[in-house]
Amino acid sequence: MKLAPLRRRDIRRCVEIEKQLFAGDDPWSVRAFQSELDAGGYYLGAYTDEDELVGYAGLATVGRPGEFESSVHTIGVDPAYQGQGIGTALLRALLARADDLHAPVFLEVRTDNDRALELYARHGFTQIGLRKRYYQPSGADAYTMMRPSHSAQEVS
């Protein structure tokens, strides 16, 4: 598996994975992914040796040097490839990007997504808030989580 910048030609595959992962809520559309890429977000794809997209992740950053903040906008891994470290690799790549900018990282995650909660906790995220009925149409709650900024030297 290799990580590389997400290619526009892979957006439809992202949408297929979204529909599998988030069927009970509002999976991202082609237009949503296009908008994120157009906005300049940092998006990565996880590709097999056969160049098949099996996961994706995106990080948005706002602010100016010395005051940047980043948000994980999405991480998704094809269910057939879960449990192989792909989500961890994608998250670590996003965090490395935020670390380069000395930016704290925020995200929202379903309160019932134990696997993701464990992943985020292992990478220094703590719960800082609760968003009631955040995910629609299911009405599932989300935790807001944050990881303080780290410099590249602190992380090594």
Automatic annotation (TrEMBL):
Signal peptide: none
Keyword Transferase: yes
Gene Ontology molecular-function annotations: protein-N-terminal-alanine acetyltransferase activity
Domain N-acetyltransferase: residue ranges: 1-150
Xref: Gene3D superfamilies: 3.40.630.30
Keywords linked to the UniProt accession: Transferase
InterPro entries to which the protein is assigned, alphabetical: AcTrfase_RimI/Ard1, Acyl_CoA_acyltransferase, GNAT_dom, MshD_Acetyltransferase
Pfam families, alphabetized: Acetyltransf_1
NCBIfam families, sorted: rimI
PANTHER family in alphabetical order: L-AMINO ACID N-ACETYLTRANSFERASE, N-ALPHA-ACETYLTRANSFERASE RIMI
Name of this chain's protein: Ribosomal-protein-alanine N-acetyltransferase
Organism in which the protein naturally occurs: Amycolatopsis pithecellobii
